[in-house]
Specification:
mainly alpha; 3 domains; 134 residues
């Protein structure tokens, strides 16, 4: 069976209002078991050196719709990656800085785009000047 189809079917079961609570709970348990066993992944062990993988586990910790078991697993994986509390908070700052760089890059692109109005270019210059990015 295609792992994506199986997991997708379980997720659909969980979100289907016509399905009983017992069936939904059973689907959640199966999904958690599949996730813990690595079912559907190319590798049973994720590459913890990949920031996106660790970021996904961090997001799991803050998602109210995720089970306590899944959150515990996410904590274990973050710990296994050697990520400390300090580096976690720094990574959020880094992501914020990265976002700001992308936004400022967009404004720089606005200045070079011949299809953009002069008023939009003026606004872009103001924003870039405020951020010392000119």
């Amino acid at each position: 069976k295609n792992p994506n189809n199986v997991m997708g079917g379980l997720k659909a079961t969980i979100n289907n209002p016509k399905v009983s609570d017992e069936a939904k709970e059973s689907a959640k348990e199966r999904l958690n078991e599949m996730a813990e066993s690595g079912y559907g992944r190319k590798e049973a062990t994720p590459d913890l050196n990949d920031n996106r993988v660790v970021g996904g586990y961090k997001a799991t910790l803050h998602n109210d719709r995720v089970s306590d078991e899944a959150k515990a697993h996410a904590r274990e994986m973050i710990d296994a990656a050697g990520v400390s509390e300090d580096s976690q908070s720094r990574s959020y700052t880094t992501e914020g800085e990265e976002h700001e760089n992308h936004v400022l890059g967009g404004y720089k692109g606005t200045l070079k785009n011949p299809n953009v109005s002069e008023s939009a270019k003026g606004h872009a210059r103001e924003v870039l000047d405020e951020h010392d990015a000119l």
